[in-house]
Structures are given as C-alpha cells and as structure tokens.
Amino acid sequence: MPTSRLQRLASQLTWHWEHQLRPRLSGLTDAEYLWEPVEGCWSIRARPDGAYALDWAFPAPDPAPLTTIAWRLAHIGQTLAQRADFHFGDGTLTMDRIRWPGPTAAEGLARLDGAYADWTAGLAAADDGMLGRRSDGPPGTLDGRFPFAEVILHVNREVIHHGAEVALLRDLYRARRPGSPGTA
User: Fold this and answer.
1) Residues contacting 59, CB < 8 A, separation 6+
2) What is the pTM of this model?
3) Of 132, 147, 153, 138, which Cα lies nearest the Cα of 89?
4) Which of 11, 92, 116, 171 has the greatest number of C-beta atoms within 10 Å?
C-alpha cells in the first residue's frame, strides 16, 4: 500500500495501467492499430525521409479530426516520454526530436511500454519534496505553471482519457459490420 503522497499519485496510474489499459492492448493487430473508421482521420504516416510522424496541426482544427489507435498510443507515449525526460532526464526530448513509432502495433506498444517504464521509474526515484516544486516541462506545455503534483495528475488524466478512447476504438473495430468504413 502506498504511504507517501507521491506514491499515492503514482499508484493511480500504475493501477490503471496494470488493470485496465495494458490488458486491453493485448492482441492488438496492425490492421486495428491503423484502422481509420472515418475519412480524414489523423494517424501515423511515413514521411519522405522514411521516418514516421503524427498528423497534427497547431492550433488543432475545431472540431479536431478523429484519431487512430496508432495516433492515440503515440500521443500517450509522447506525453510519458517527454515528461520523464524533462522532469527526470536531460530535458532534450522536444517534439522535433521524438522518434515516432512506425506502422506496426508491436512497435507502437514497445514505444509506449518504454515511455511508461521511464516515467514510472522517475516517479519511483523521486520524493515528496518534489511535489510542491514547479519545473519547466516540455516546451508548449503548462507544466511550469503548476506544482509537480499537478503535472503527475495531468499525466494520469491523459493516459486514462486516451486509453479509454483506445479501448472504445478496439470495441468499435471488433463490432464493425461488413460495408462499414475500414472493412473489406
């Protein structure tokens, strides 16, 4: 049972990861990972140089396009990886330095698992003294405006929120009917 405040904050994400999100990703196929249920989805796409990148725009259009499982998992991974780097690492993992996963579910899940491991290892090595401190997070985030405890809660919300969207997309993929978008 977590005893410190930081352990309690971290345990929220750990419980969700171990009992909800990560089990729901078991058996994810490449077709499901890249499934675009409607026209105009944002996803992961190859660039001319052979690297992969997320579709995105800033500011995002209103309404923002629907995103694929690949896009959502890459976003969760980016959220975790950048926060781990900026709060516990050397602070160099900016958006232009992220190496996005390619078009396979295995690669996307490996990147996600690595980012989760880095974030949770950083939290495990931290102490409650960090919770009230403000720190500059990744550029473009509001991390520096809030105490670190709020950053942890924000990361938890992001993973839980987008993880639930991934679970719903998996349910929709499984239940789609012949002739619906994304079916042969």
Assistant:
1) none
2) 0.93
3) 138
4) 116
